[in-house]
User: Which sequence fits this backbone?
């Protein structure tokens, strides 16, 4: 009790008279707790961080617009300083850089008298800058007028798309005459002068290359045709094409004898011809094609790039990759009793492969009815297969006049390169052999005049300082020494070498499956599915786009938020059906219903698709080759579609040093 009385009567003011406990001071009338102080500090840093993010985004946009006009001639530090000086206004910053550099180009050189080592270094650096900048200024000066290269557009954002360039290509006047530079003595440019600018002797330039004439000269004037071989697993695709290559002389007898001996030791004697295309140990051990095998052969009038696609359902994504790069196709079916039915009925790959190639733009198809020797070349069996397949392929969108049926035998080689002389076959079949039908295919029209586009199918390290990418050129053409832009990483690199079918070339055009050796970029930034494009007219990368799709035989109705796997060229990307826009009439395209709750099999609809990562793609109306895609769900192909509108935007990566300059100069 006494202790309690002492506590109640204790004078606390005497103890705290001169102390400052937890932020309490004798001069202050308030108290700040440690938690409150930390919250204030945290809020302060959050505000600074948000402020930095806003300014960083403005700087990104400003520098992208400036780089689109000036190219790579101006150092990054110069662009950053100009952007910061004019509060990230690209127009004022560009005017400042162009005016300053043009003034430097007009300034006559001073006499070099009594100049120290430091002054000499400055003059050399100034000359080097002039030599880099003068060509850009000269390229923008035509007929005494200063062209703006499309900079009248105030913003690069259009429909939420962040594009690396301001205008899709310069004006025709600006690109009329290439300019030159002399490293030791840069020439001044007079805007009022109409004299032509001398050209730098760099060999064959893009303006001088007549691509159509060069294509006619190459391969003796033979057009290129990309052929994919598809069909159900164990239909004999690899054996059929391997035997075809052997009969054409693309595989010598010594190599073929080696394959025969090795296949016998492995207990797979009938797979000898398949080993011509199935080169990996795992493919040979399992007896199935797993990846797209690629080779080349020639007919009387064409050069054929052959792609042997896998038939097993587990490797459908690889088959889609091959079919997306093909112009025509050979569908191989097994004529054996029960085997054709297994591949053609539900669950077989004959139907799915036929739908896939047609949806990916293949219109000409040769059906190789294989293993006809096992049914004694019966006409009735052949007609039965033709009847069932013909009805299905017509429903898939093939015209009867574009589908051709050829009885063959991959193991014996009958009716492959020459017309068969087997009496049981010649008694009722008088049509062409398989090679003749391939040679009769019509080559497609190539988009050579359009801007350069190449979809990367493989990336590997080169022996030199750069690395190699392989893929098919979908549009335009490329030459050694050209600069290309990789999207979506938005990085520029230089093409140092071009290889087509193991042959080094100076150029390659649309339709070619090439290997490019590139430098100036880190290999870690390039993935399969990236698009190499013309820096002046780049492809757009997005995470959200609108498309028109055709639904196949699906078991589960598609609703908003439905997860799918997007297959586009060589890209396989997880995606989501973000919005169901409308249901369309199959033939007329008329809107039947807006904002449907779900989509069922066989319907034609407009949807909005969201991808997890940016994907570089084109509108179908601009590039048919780069506007098609497939949707899959739980191992089945559920829809095919074409891109109609790009909605999403990408984040343009930026160099860390620019951010450091921004932070140090503007905020800290």
Assistant:
């Amino acid at each position: 009790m006494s202790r309690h009385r002492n506590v109640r009567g204790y004078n606390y003011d005497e103890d705290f008279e001169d102390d400052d406990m937890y932020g309490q001071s004798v001069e202050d009338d308030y108290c700040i707790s440690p938690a409150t102080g930390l919250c204030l500090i945290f809020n302060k840093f959050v505000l600074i961080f948000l402020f930095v993010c806003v300014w960083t985004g403005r700087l990104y946009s400003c520098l992208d617009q400036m780089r689109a006009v000036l190219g790579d001639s101006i150092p990054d530090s110069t662009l950053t300083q100009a952007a910061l000086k004019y509060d990230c206004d690209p127009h004022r910053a560009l005017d400042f850089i162009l005016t300053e550099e043009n003034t430097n180009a007009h300034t006559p050189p001073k006499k070099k008298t009594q100049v120290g080592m430091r002054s000499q270094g400055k003059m050399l650096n100034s000359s080097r800058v002039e030599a880099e900048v003068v060509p850009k200024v000269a390229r923008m000066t035509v007929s005494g007028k200063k062209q703006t290269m499309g900079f009248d557009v105030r913003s690069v954002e259009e429909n939420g798309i962040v594009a690396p360039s301001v205008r899709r290509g310069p004006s025709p006047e600006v690109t009329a005459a290439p300019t030159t530079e002399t490293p030791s003595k840069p020439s001044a440019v007079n805007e009022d002068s109409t004299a032509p600018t001398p050209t730098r002797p760099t060999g064959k330039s893009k303006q001088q290359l007549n691509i159509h004439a060069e294509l006619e000269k190459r391969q003796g004037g033979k057009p290129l045709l990309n052929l994919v071989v598809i069909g159900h697993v164990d239909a004999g695709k690899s054996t059929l094409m391997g035997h075809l290559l052997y009969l054409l002389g693309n595989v010598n007898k010594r190599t073929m004898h080696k394959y025969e001996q090795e296949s016998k030791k492995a207990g797979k004697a009938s797979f000898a011809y398949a080993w011509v295309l199935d080169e990996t140990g795992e493919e040979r051990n399992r007896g199935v094609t797993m990846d797209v095998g690629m080779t080349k052969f020639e007919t009387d009038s064409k050069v054929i790039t052959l792609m042997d696609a896998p038939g097993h359902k587990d490797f459908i994504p690889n088959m889609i990759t091959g079919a997306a790069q093909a112009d025509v196709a050979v569908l191989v079916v097994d004529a054996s009793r029960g085997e054709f039915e297994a591949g053609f009925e539900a669950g077989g790959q004959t139907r799915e492969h036929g739908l896939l190639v047609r949806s990916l733009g293949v219109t000409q198809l040769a059906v190789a009815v294989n293993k006809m020797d096992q049914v004694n070349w019966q006409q009735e069996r052949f007609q039965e297969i033709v009847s069932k397949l013909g009805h299905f392929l017509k429903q898939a969108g093939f015209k009867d006049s574009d589908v051709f049926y050829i009885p063959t035998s991959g193991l014996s080689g009958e009716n492959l390169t020459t017309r068969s002389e087997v009496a049981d076959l010649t008694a009722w079949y008088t049509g062409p052999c398989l090679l003749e039908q391939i040679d009769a295919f019509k080559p497609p029209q190539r988009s050579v005049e359009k801007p350069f586009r190449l979809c990367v199918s493989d990336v590997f390290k080169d022996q030199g300082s750069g690395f190699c990418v392989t893929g098919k050129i979908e549009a335009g053409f490329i030459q050694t020494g050209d600069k290309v832009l990789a999207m979506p990483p938005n990085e520029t690199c230089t093409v140092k070498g071009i290889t087509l079918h193991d042959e080094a070339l100076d150029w390659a055009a649309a339709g070619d499956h090439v290997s490019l050796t590139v430098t100036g970029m880190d290999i870690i930034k390039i993935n399969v599915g990236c698009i190499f494009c013309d820096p002046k007219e780049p492809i757009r990368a997005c995470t959200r786009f609108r498309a028109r799709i055709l639904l196949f035989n699906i078991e589960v109705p598609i609703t908003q938020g439905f997860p799918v796997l997007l297959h586009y060229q060589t890209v396989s990307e997880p995606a989501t059906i973000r919005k169901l826009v409308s249901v369309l009439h199959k033939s007329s395209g008329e809107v039947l219903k807006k904002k449907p709750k779900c989509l069922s099999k066989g319907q034609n609809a407009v949807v909005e698709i969201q991808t997890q990562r940016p994907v570089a793609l084109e509108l179908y109306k601009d590039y048919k080759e780069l506007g098609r895609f497939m949707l899959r769900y739980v191992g089945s192909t559920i829809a095919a579609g074409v891109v109609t509108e790009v909605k999403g935007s990408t984040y343009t990566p930026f160099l860390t040093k620019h951010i450091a300059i921004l932070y140090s100069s503007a905020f800290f």
